[in-house]
Structures are given as C-alpha cells and as structure tokens.
Amino acid sequence: MTMTAERWLETYRQKWPMATDHDKGRYPHRQTRSEALQRRYIQANPSALTAQIVIDLDHEDSLSRALELNGVPTPNYVAQSPSGRAHVAYLLKAPVCRTDNARLEPMRFVARVEAGLVSALRADLGYAGFMTKNPIHDDWDTVWTNDHLWTLKELATQLPGWLPHALPRRAAESSGLARNVTLFNRVRLWSYRAILRHRDGGISAWEEVTHAYALAVNQEFPTPLATSEVRHLARSVSRWTWRNLTAEGFTKLQRERGRKGGAATAAIRSAEKTITDELIRSMAL
Question: Which of 38, 55, 88, 258 has its Cα between 20 and 30 A from that of 278?
C-alpha cells in the first residue's frame, strides 16, 4: 500500500512541535499541532525519541536517487523543493528513546542505520536532523511511497555494504544520531566521579553542573544537538547518579584498588562495568 498524507498524520503525534516558515528551518518556535502543521518546516522527532529517520539530500536528482538506487530501502516519502533537493523519511515501527529511559544498544543501532543511509544516498553530513520539510505543506512536492513502518533490523539488512561496524568515538567526528550516543557516553562516564565533588550542593546544583558539562561537550560536534535534547539527556544521567552513586561506594572501590594493586585490576574493571550496566538497565524502557 502507498503512504498518504492522512496516514502520515496518524504517525506524527507531536502535540506541541517546533515549527517555522523560515528557510532551512531557522528560528523555530513551539506551537500547537494544528498551527505547526501549517508551517513549511516542522520538528522531525520529539526531543527524547526517534520516530523517523530523516535524511537530507542536497542533489538535483534527489527523488530518483532515493527511489531508484539499488539496494537502498524505499523511504516512506520524499519531500522535495523545486530545486530537486529533498528530505527523505523512514518511519519507524518502534520509536527509539534517546535520553530519559534510554537503552544504549538501540541508540547505537539507530545511529548506525542512519549513518548507513547517509553513506548510501550520499546525503548531507551536516544536516542536524531537528527540523524537516513539512511533507503536507504546499511548498514541497511530496512523493508518497510505501506505508510500511520499518524496524531497525529491516533497514539494516538492506544496507549491508554501507552500515558502519562502529560509531565514531570523537565528538568532532560524530554527526546525526551518533551525537546522542557520544554525548550520553561522555556525560555518564564523567558523572561517576564528578558527583563526589558536588553532592554537598544538593541535587538542583548537581543537575545544573551536569547540564553545563553536557552543553560543553555538545559544542564539540560539527553540528550541535538541539538544546532541548541536551537538557533531557543531562537530566537523565544526573538523576540516576544522584540516586545510585555515593561517596561510600567509590571509597570502597578505591580501597580495594589500593589494597590489591595490579592483581585486582580485572575485578575492579568488572565492578566499574557493573555500575555502567546498572545505569543502562535502570534507564531501560
């Protein structure tokens, strides 16, 4: 079956999305759903979820590239401008949580799939992925294709030659959804020890410090994440570490390291990994 505007509206469930009529989605502001759907550009995904993967094609033949390139999954729609440049969207059957309640593996998986699509279609690496062409706006020539909602596994199996085995570790090399993974890792690892220096100030001060650190890391990306995404992620990590990591726990770990020396390295690393795994499990959907 073919995707339709009505069917797309059923999948786009944001109640207060950011939207704008400015070129390239600049200067958006939050508004009601009915108002936002009249704008040229709308927020692609909620702040904490990836419900659709949107790719920016900066080519005059974007439509044919998206629909006719051998081996590349067929998108759900292509919203193109008169110049031929377009936003190509893949709607997900199960949205992926990026911040609060997030699991790390789905975040990595959706980032790898996005990177594979960008590579296969030779898409714009600098696209922030926050604002997208509103597919039901009259300014865009939208071609509706299939109405199949994709799983990440389905998309990945059709990208065997383009799917990266791993994501970049350096912030300066991260783009797209890989930024969420990099930011999440940097902030959570920093927070394990930083909280010991900030407990006396109370949880509100700790959340502010964590948010400030996350904002600093975000500025290392070639195209930073939206401030709302950074705020959600920082709040998730700061609240978990406040509840679960205490000075007593780290003192015990340091005491073990000093007493047993090099012979206990493997056990200590295992204990530190347990802390990380517990963070991810406790934030799981």
Answer: 258
